Amino acid sequence: MSEVIVSNPTPLMAKSPYDLRVNLGTGVPETDVRSALATGDMGFLHSFTTGSTLDGPGVRIVGWTTGCHWRCLYCHNPDTWTMSNGIPVTLTRAVEELRKYRHGLKVMSGGFTLSGGEPLMQDRFAAKLLAAVHEMGIHTALDTNGSLGNRLSDAELESIDLVLLDIKAWDPDRHRHLTGMDVGAVLEFARRLADRNRPIWVRYVLVPGLTDDSHEIAQIAKFAASLGTVKRVDVLPFHQMGRYKWKELNLDYKLEAVEPPDNETVERTCEIFRAAGLTAH
Ligand code: SF4
């Protein structure tokens, strides 16, 4: 493994995932990147952040991976799209970093959430890291767009206590417009999780004028309720905290003029999910 990986001095802990981080892994030789992706012995991380109460039950540490093949119009962390923007981190370093927090996380009924980016772009690293953390007795969650769920074996799913599954739209055209990708694999992964009785929290980002159509939301609610293992739905109001990253990265941000939804719209959206028999916040 190269010197760049072993001696990378960038702190893994960040104050927030909204810190802009770029080009931290560009010195890693291509052969190391390929071997890392194949074995999972190394990954690329934007950062770890502590103290989240939004990414699963209790107080959590969140690992933000880099690499995502989607291009959501509202993405608030576009610096995580490129894998080489992340810090190259050995699996051992990531596990040891998390080991320091294991007692505190248990006391706070919290755990570890792997998010991104799309964590399953580095599926071997994600599977090995979640298994190692699970082995320590820490609650594990995977926050994913679901499109690469078929990269995880049934056995690997068992070491993930909760899947935070982003369902971004129901209508295929709307989904493609919003993310650049098809929704089919997401729904397939949701059904597989349900078949294996794995707990799911559905996450739905509410963007005025884009994802606030009641009929569309009702379709997602009906599907989520039919799964039987969706424990909760988080309605996430769109915000503009990632706007500056689009500008810094010279990306074409199309939601410049969009305002966050008001409380009434958020509550109305939650009610649609509740009407389908789900718990929604
Ligand atoms: S799936 Fe997540 S990380 Fe990827 S573009 Fe969409 S919001 Fe951003």
Structural class: alpha/beta
The average pLDDT value, as a whole number, equals 93
Beta-strand percent range: 15-25%
Ligands in the structure?
iron/sulfur cluster
Based on Cα principal axes, name the global outline.
globular
Continuous helix count: 11
Straight-line N-to-C gap: 45 Å
Strand and helix order: HHEEEHHEHEHEHHEHEHH
Strand order of the largest sheet: 3-1-2-4-5-6-7-8
Largest sheet: 8 strands, mixed
List how many beta strands DSSP finds. Answer: 8
List low-confidence stretches: none
The amount of helix comes to 25-40%
User: How large is the radius of gyration?
Assistant: 18 Å
For the structure shown, list the relevant keywords.
about 280 residues; about 20% strand; binds iron/sulfur cluster
What would a concise description of this structure say?
By secondary structure, the protein is an alpha/beta fold.
Q: In terms of topology, how is this protein built?
A:
Elements: H1 3-6, H2 30-39, E1 42-52, E2 60-65, E3 87-90, H3 91-99, H4 102-107, E4 111-115, H5 123-135, E5 139-144, H6 154-158, E6 162-166, H7 172-179, H8 184-195, E7 200-206, H9 214-227, E8 230-237, H10 243-248, H11 263-275
Parallel strand pairs: 2-4, 4-5, 5-6, 6-7, 7-8
Antiparallel strand pairs: 1-2, 1-3
